[in-house]
Amino acid sequence: MSVSQAQTGPEAVASRASLQPRPGWLGGLDRLTGPKATKAELWLQLGPAIAAAIIAPLYARSLPVEWTPLQLGLIAFLGLDMVGGVLTNATATAKRWYHRPGQGWRQHFAFVCLHLVHILLVALVLRSGDWGFFGGVSAYLLMASLVIVRSHRYLQRPIALGLYGLALLGDRYWLTPTPGLEWLLPFLFLKLLVSHLVPEETDRPTASQSTPPKI
């Protein structure tokens, strides 16, 4: 079968149809989790996320810090989004949806850029306007994301894991932890660099790609 036939045949039409979100509010859920997510996937995503939204502010309140309702609300939202995001983006259904035809490196990079708002809110609301935190974390996140999405597909997983490891070291030895949110950056980088940007299936290298460069 030719390439054009493969793209326009019945199997391709059925495949594209299976990736169409449902109408109404269910379509909004499909755009987050991927169309036709299984019940097991949905429970795996929602249960821990809701638990994190409850536990995160409770943990923060156990610390000797005077919290405002806004701060506790932000902590609850971040717990929900980070834990839910790590698990959602790791499911097979979400991988198929976010890495469907037409979703290239620009779309993935735009998704990462949306999360700069999370870093900004933490810098303003929980770190008293810490612009060094915002600039440093944002710069590394954008740099690492660009390296991953512009790499050969078959190399994206090890590159993502390596850059995630560097993020963990930076969070541990360079940054001052955010009280109540010591867990935030490990989850943020795990969600974006590993869970979201890395496709479910990676291409095998071609002969030219797998040949070591001459020194």
TrEMBL record:
Domain of life assignment: Bacteria
Ranges that cross the membrane: 42-60, 72-92, 104-125, 131-149
Keywords for the protein's UniProt record, in alphabetical order: Membrane, Transmembrane, Transmembrane helix
Protein name as catalogued: Uncharacterized protein
